[in-house]
Amino acid sequence: MSLYLMNDDVNSFEYVIEILLTFLPMCNSLRAEQIAQLVHNSGECHIHTGFPPEIYILYAQIQKSGLTVQLKLDKK
What we know:
21% strand
């Protein structure tokens, strides 16, 4: 499964970066800034691939923080 961050026009770049740094595994400030910029420019960005239950936990944590995320099944 893949987790995507969606553009919401509500949260600031700084807040999005803070949430990504807090919850996204192996995320540093440069990657968080790049993700925020990609989401702003293209409307969505793939941010993580994983397996249940871990990806569901990550989804819930980010969503509870006020960001818009979607889970998508990986295509084979």
